[in-house]
């Protein structure tokens, strides 16, 4: 069987079992590849040959998932969440925030669509009207599109993070992993919206391509501890996004504070010497948030420069 496909094969290896599935009017062919394995003598046709080439036409390490070598010796520490999908601190003193607000808005939009289709379907079915099947198909399609759009946002953020950390010379990444979170404290956020286990697995796979090593670190008390003085303040996190050291009175982003605590546990003492960079995820890529987009709009007496348009020009 020959199947046409889009894109280019990045690796070479032994082909596994091909599975063809039908989902919402579309056909998908899924086949695993064991990278780096020589083709069997009995079935050399079951061997995938790569055609992925760089800008100069050279195949890049076709027998291994690793495509690059780190260009620096820095280390990065990540706190994962939902409002801030990734809070990153790097051993060179820089910090980044990748916000997950788009993921939440996407999920709740599709939640309303799914609930509407489900309600209409059940009403028509209980009334004996045969058109309920049409709304059942809409319900299944909405479920599928929701998951695919969320997956696209997550993969976009992870790929951007890998490119950015590779460019900054990171060779090893430490991730705060919430062990048994959904079992011990499961809710709609950490079971339906925040796919933290899938995110970690995707990070491991993507970062292997860049030659960046990934290590998981338990999250115990990383959000409660103060990265400034090392104590656990009872009311340190006064509201979402802000942590105050009750001993020194200094303020710090709560998620960056957790990332710094990961570094402290591993024996690193990082001082944030640069302004925290903020990024927002979209379906067209990750875009930076400049100061105008973060301007204060709570005080009506303060005009928001981001909303002034062309006034005064």
Q: Would you kindly provide a written description of the structure presented here, covering whatever features stand out?
A:
The chain is of the alpha+beta class and 313 residues long. The strands form 4 sheets. It has a 7-stranded mixed beta sheet with strand order 10-9-6-7-8-14-15. Strands 4-1-5 form a 3-stranded antiparallel beta sheet, with no helix packed on it. Helix 1 packs antiparallel against helix 2 (132-167) and helix 2 crosses helix 5 (196-209). The protein contains 6 helices and 15 strands. The protein has helices spanning 101-126, 132-167, 181-185, 188-193, 196-209, 254-265, and strands spanning 13-15, 19-23, 26-30, 33-35, 47-48, 74-80, 84-90, 95-99, 170-177, 213-218, 237-239, 242-244, 251-253, 277-282, 285-288. 32% of the residues lie in helices and 22% in strands.
Main β sheet profile? 7 strands, mixed
Shape: flat
Give the strand tally: 15
**Rounded radius of gyration (Å):** 24 Å
- CA distance, first residue to last residue: 65 Å
Oligomer: single chain
Helix content: 25-40%
Order of helices and strands: EEEEEEEEHHEHHHEEEEHEE
Which structural class do the helices and strands define? Answer: alpha+beta
Average predicted confidence as pLDDT: 82
Order of the strands making up the biggest sheet = 10-9-6-7-8-14-15
Share of β-strand residues: 15-25%
Distinct helical segment count: 6
Spans with pLDDT under 50 lasting ≥5 residues?
292-313
């Amino acid at each position: 069987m020959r199947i046409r496909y889009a894109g280019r094969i990045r690796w070479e290896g032994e082909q596994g079992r091909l599975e063809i599935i039908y989902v919402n009017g579309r056909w998908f062919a899924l086949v695993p590849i064991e990278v780096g394995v020589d083709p069997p003598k009995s079935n050399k046709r079951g061997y995938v040959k790569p055609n992925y080439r760089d800008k100069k036409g050279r195949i890049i390490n076709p027998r291994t998932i690793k495509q690059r070598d780190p260009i620096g010796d820095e280390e990065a520490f990540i706190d994962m969440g939902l409002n801030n999908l990734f809070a990153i601190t790097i051993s060179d003193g820089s910090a980044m925030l990748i916000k997950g607000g788009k993921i939440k808005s996407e999920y709740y939009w599709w939640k309303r669509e799914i609930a509407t289709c489900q309600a209409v379907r059940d009403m028509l079915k209980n009334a004996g009207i045969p058109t309920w099947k049409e709304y059942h198909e809409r319900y299944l399609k909405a479920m599928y599109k929701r998951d695919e759009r969320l997956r696209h946002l997550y993969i976009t953020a992870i790929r951007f993070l890998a490119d950015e950390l590779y460019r900054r010379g990171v060779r090893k990444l430490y991730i705060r992993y919430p062990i048994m979170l959904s079992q011990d404290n499961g809710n709609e956020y950490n079971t339906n919206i925040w796919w933290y286990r899938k995110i970690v697995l995707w990070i491991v796979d993507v970062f292997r391509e860049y030659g960046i090593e990934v290590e998981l670190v338990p999250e115990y008390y990383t959000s409660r501890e103060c990265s400034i003085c090392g104590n656990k303040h009872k009311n340190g996190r006064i509201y979402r996004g802000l942590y105050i050291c009750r001993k020194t009175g200094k303020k710090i982003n709560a998620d960056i504070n957790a990332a710094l605590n990961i570094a402290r546990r591993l024996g690193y003492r990082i001082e944030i010497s640069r302004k925290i960079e903020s990024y927002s995820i979209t379906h067209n890529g990750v875009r930076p948030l400049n100061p105008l987009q973060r301007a204060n709009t709570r005080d009506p007496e303060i005009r928001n420069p981001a909303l002034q348009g062309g006034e005064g020009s």
